[in-house]
Automatic annotation (TrEMBL):
InterPro entries: AAA+_ATPase (IPR003593), ATPase_AAA_core (IPR003959), DNA_pol3_clamp-load_cplx_C (IPR008921), DNA_Rep/Repair_Clamp_Loader (IPR050238), P-loop_NTPase (IPR027417), Rep_factor-C_ssu_arc (IPR023748), Rep_factorC_C (IPR013748), RFC_lid (IPR047854). The gene is rfcS. It comes from Methanobrevibacter olleyae. One of its GO terms (molecular function) is DNA clamp loader activity. GO terms for biological process: DNA repair; DNA-templated DNA replication. SMART domains: AAA. Heteromultimer composed of small subunits (RfcS) and large subunits (RfcL). Gene3D superfamilies: 1.10.8.60, 1.20.272.10, P-loop containing nucleotide triphosphate hydrolases. Keywords: ATP-binding, DNA replication, Nucleotide-binding. This is Replication factor C small subunit. It comes from the Archaea.
Amino acid sequence: MLGPWVEKYRPQSLDDVVGQKHIVNRLKQYVEEESMPNLMFTGPAGVGKTTSALALVKSILGEYWRQNFLELNASDARGIETVRTDIKNFCRLKPVGAPFRIIFLDEVDNMTKDAQHALRREMEMYTKTASFILSCNYSSKIIDPIQSRCAIFRFTPIKAEEIADRLKFIAETEGCEYEDTAITTIVNFAEGDMRKSVNMLQSAASTGSITEDHVFEVVSKAKPQEIKKMVNTALMGDFMKSRDILREVMILQGTSGEDMVNQIYQDVSGRVMSGQMDGDVYMNLIGAIAETDFRIREGANPRIQLEALLAKFL
Ligand SMILES: Nc1ncnc2c1ncn2[C@@H]1O[C@H](COP(=O)(O)OP(=O)(O)OP(=O)(O)O)[C@@H](O)[C@H]1O
């Protein structure tokens, strides 16, 4: 299990990119036409923006892609001036063995408006020799003159089934056994983020095997069954026992106070929705949950606040 799986299993070609099918199909057309406009990839983290850009670059530039490709991060610690100098130096040179050169600029939404205006001028100046692929989480943070110079591709969170299939493929290739419930749990936590999913899978595998228990450990969340047991005990009037469960979960799993309140809220909401809890009881509890949530966020000791919350369940 050498190195990060996110790198080992980064798709190398457009065909291997999971999901984002309509985007991949349009990118393949650019490869066929051997030309592309400036592109903007927007969307949440870990859904394949950088991966698709690299796969496109390799296909469209062919054998000499390395010599004709520059990857930069707009929030480079050395400052935006260095980024611009790198762009200028790169664009001044003619493409070698390829029809044009490509610059991939990540985190463009972290650039100031002034820096974006300067970038726009560079995009205009080098239209003949270079194409840009700009990547960002929010296109709304990009100035209109840049947006209007790019074909915009909106990447979406990856579907649960597609993530599950990918995780199973990786686990099988690595020769790791897995529980189906472990995969489902990862998929639920990852919210469409493939990078997060693959990282969780690798962390769970590094603890021995990919079981549901190990997944909860690596994400430091309490199991829903444990929260249910704690709430049940409190509602039945056994405060001391529910307090023991609380301590065990927080110490053994390392679940944070904020996560605990959130999970208690989800448990209680589930009960009222399924008719297991009266609306009146819920109304009393929700005020106490909200208060605990607020206090923990403000910096109060989470264990004391959560114990006080359980005492209100009696
Ligand atoms: N669509 C996908 N298909 C297969 N693997 C993916 C996909 N998206 C992400 N991954 C996995 O997650 C890793 C990170 O993905 P990538 O760098 O493309 O994310 P990104 O969308 O550019 O995110 P960010 O906005 O954080 O830069 C990849 O190396 C790969 O292992």
